[in-house]
Amino acid sequence: LAAAAAAALGGHADALVADAAEAAALDPEGLSRSVIVARDETPGEAWRLDAELPEGCTWLVDALEPDPAVRRAVSRLLADVCLAPDRAAAERAVAADPRIRAVTEDGELRGEGWVALGRGEASGVELAGEAERAAARRDEAAAQLETLAGSLEGARSAAEDARVQAASAAAALREHDHSHRELARAVEHAERGEAERAKNAERAERRIAELEDKRGTLESRLEEVRDRLDEADDAGPVEDDAGDGRAEEAAALLEQVRAVEVEARLSLRSAEERRDHSAGRGDRLRRQAE
What we know:
2 domains; two-stranded parallel ribbon; 7 strands; Alpha-Beta Plaits; 5-stranded mixed beta sheet
């Protein structure tokens, strides 16, 4: 609204502000043509012309926020000025009440029978408005810069965290690969051991089968000796040497049968223990590898 205010104020847009006593003491002979506004901070409502405005128009003084020192003076200078959204609205406002001056936001000012338009040198009001807008843009840029600085710092921190996490992940991956290779070697070793124990178990089973056959043979021989002893007893007295020989043979065969049976049981138990131990260790290693 700086252009509208400058156009409506005219020469007062570049006015000097002074106390009433200071203004009275000025020597007009030593001054170029100047407008001086007396400083007056007396509170009060803004004064406006008693008139009805067309739709879309408002009083210019209501749209401004002048310094308290010149508020009363600005209110009186702009009491008859309305702010129009465009040229047509300004023309309607002046036609409705010739006392009214109407100004558009781009600074086109008109009254009954006259219009002031175009651009001249920037007034103090316009320069002040431009300075305020520049300060607002500066503050906005500073706020954005501060926000961007915080975002940049956050991004740097996130990048550093990501690098640390990546390094940790790489170390964990290397450790995992090493552990996996160790487990793979252990599983391979266990599988070889299991294969070897399977061979041993197979040999033990063959040995047990051989011992079972041998025990069967010995038991058959023992049974034959017992049968001969029984037949000899039924036939009557025999020479002591012959009877003793058969008894000793039977006792020896019985002892061999018992020895073979014990050996078979021990071989079977040992084979079962090796098989169970191998199976348990293999399962543990496979679970670790998974």
